[in-house]
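Weekly structure sync, notes
Attendees: PL, DS, HV (note-taker this week)

Item 1: Holo-[acyl-carrier-protein] synthase
DS walked through the input record. Source organism listed as Faecalibacterium langellae. Sequence as pasted into the shared doc:
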Amino acid sequence: MLYGIGCDLCEIAHLEKSLTGAHAAAFIRRVYGEAERAALSLDEPLPAGRSAAHRLASAAANFAAKEAFLKAAGTGLREPFSLCEIEAVRLENGAPAYHFSGQTAEWMQAHGLAARLSLSHEGGMALAFCTLETL
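Item 1 (cont.): predicted structure, written out as tokens:
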């Protein structure tokens, strides 16, 4: 049974400012989980060119995934959720999926929910769509 639906758009250029600004390290630690930071090499400076553009688009899609989840949960960003506990990961086949940890994982289990995720990016925008379903 469907519990909630959420979607979010993230402007890639706006996120780039957060990832490269004076407080980038703190922003990255607060928003992205370990698996995301490793997969996107967020703890390393962004190189120029196509590689950086792809990393930025993926980071923006991951950010949108977090916001979409919060909308589907119907709570917004408040207890028990922490953005770094809501990770958008890629499966071996490349499909996006959620990985939850900490209090967010406990909340999902307590509510008996499973999450599905779809991501896209094009034209300077990244999109995420989340559904939460009862198990």
